[in-house]
Design brief:
The radius of gyration is 14 Å and the shape is globular. It has helices at residues 6-9, 39-42, 57-60; strands at residues 14-24, 32-37, 44-49, 64-68, 74-76, 79-81, 84-85. It is built from three helices and seven strands. Strand 1 and strand 2 (32-37) form a beta hairpin.
């Protein structure tokens, strides 16, 4: 495992986003296309997440989830993914990795910085 300095870590901008829209991505068995609201400072961003196998679009709408918002945009299916969902990937009883989401347990304003 590579180590990073505190200066490296401080470059990562993690914000809570509210999922406002989710669509399955045609041609992908992994990706969901999410529109995520980060409040007045950052606005809405399109973020593709590889969690389609474990979550249905309707399960995610309205959820407050942590995202890295200062990643370089990445082209995906003719659009740009403008961030990355943070989620652990534990192994299930068959030894396969699966996504598990971090849910915020209190109402917070979209765009709140994670420290």
């Amino acid at each position: 495992m590579d180590t990073i300095t505190i200066d490296d870590f401080q470059k990562i901008d993690i914000r809570i986003g509210k999922v406002v829209e989710v669509k399955e991505v045609k041609g992908s068995d992994k990706l969901l296309r999410c529109v995520v609201d980060f409040g007045s400072e950052l606005g809405q961003k399109i973020i593709f997440s590889g969690i389609k196998k474990w979550y249905k679009p309707e399960e995610l709408v309205g959820k407050l989830l942590p995202y890295i918002v200062n990643m370089a945009p990445r082209p995906m299916f003719g659009e740009e993914s403008q961030g990355m969902l943070m989620a652990p990937a534990p192994e299930n009883s068959e030894g396969e990795k699966e996504a598990a989401l971090f849910f915020v347990d209190k109402e917070v304003v979209p765009g709140t910085k994670v420290i």
